Amino acid sequence: MKRFYHIIITLLLLLNILTVSASAYAKPEEISVNDYAGILTDSSKSYIKSKNDILFSHTEAKIIFVTTESTQGLSINDYCTKLYSDWGMSKFGRRNSFFVVIDASGKEYSFVRGKNIRYAISESEAYKYMTDYFEPYFAQGNYDKATISLYNALAKWYESHYNNLNLGLDENIDRYTYGAKTKDAQVVESKLGLWIGAFVCVLIIVVALIIKRRMELKMRQNERRSLRKKFQIDIDKIINT
Q1: CA-CA distance, 72 to 70, in Å (whole number)?
Q2: Architecture of domain 27-176 in CATH?
Q3: What are the angstrom distances between the C-alpha of 49 and each of 97, 187, 210?
Q4: N or C: which end of the chain has fewer CB within 10 A?
Q5: Cα separation of 220 and 232, whole Å?
């Protein structure tokens, strides 16, 4: 029976992995600032989107922010990496974007640098950007100032490394920290994930029943063998006496 329970646990873990995979945000039509937690003002989002349009037209890069209310049980680093992969960011533009995920409920954040700027912006330099321009406001819960401050700092790096790039950055952060905060609509996931989940559930049940049936049959066979053996022993005793 231990083997039976081990198999069931393994199948349930597989189902959990598929469920987590299916529950992550689907890739939106526009990747720039996707505020699923509703923690940013419309004005700050408009600012980032407008500057990203200019940045992308010149460099095919974006400084991307994603906010979430849940990391689906994953660590913030794993969740950020997973979202980066699910959205195909490794092939986005010239692979030179900067991707930031903010977990509003867990008060955590993580980031991924595009492959083609990892040497230009080392990991230590990237963390310095975060600690100098993002964390002071993030710690206060002022997500608008945190994102715009970091955006402007990183945008200046792009301006200094790409010829004739002028984003027209606004240093007056405060003007974007007031106004309505509305959650961006979550893109509806493909039903493929749900079908996979349903199939796995059915598969678990079927496999469990088959395994249980076989185990019960084997137990009966063992019991019959024991009875036959015992019966044979009794007959031998009678014959010998």
Answers
A1: 5
A2: Roll (3.10)
A3: 14, 18, 55
A4: C
A5: 18
> Per mean pLDDT, which range of 14-23, 85-94, 207-216, 232-241 is the poorest?
14-23
Of 73-82, 201-210, 213-222, the range with the highest mean pLDDT is: 73-82
Give the CA distances from residue 235 to residues 224, 228, 232, in Å, rounded to whole numbers and listed in that order.
Answer: 16, 10, 5
Confidence of residue 110 (pLDDT cuts 50, 70, 90): very high
Residue 44's contacts (CB-CB under 8 Å, 6 or more residues apart) are 33, 144, 147, 148, 176, 177
**DSSP track, 20-39:** HHHHSPPPPSS-SEEETT--
Tell me how far apart the terminal alpha carbons of the chain are, to the nearest angstrom: 42
Single-letter code of the amino acid located at 171? E
Q: Pick the more confident residue, 150 or 188.
A: 150
89, 28 in Cβ contact below 8 A? no
Residue of 98, 31, 94, 84 lying closest to 60 (CA atoms): 94
Is residue 75 within a helix (H) or strand (E), and if so which, with residue range? none
What is the C-alpha to C-alpha distance for residues 34 and 187, in angstroms, rounded to an integer?
11
Where do the domains of the chain lie?
2-14+191-240, 27-176
Which tokens is 100 given?
A: 């930031």
Tell me the two tokens of residue 134.
Answer: 């993002």
Angle between helix axes 2-23 and 191-240 (nearest 10 degrees) is 180
- Cα gap 38→185, rounded to integer Å: 10
pLDDT for residue 238: 62
Q: Indicate the length of the chain as a whole number.
A: 241
Pairing type for strands 63-68 and 108-113 reads unpaired
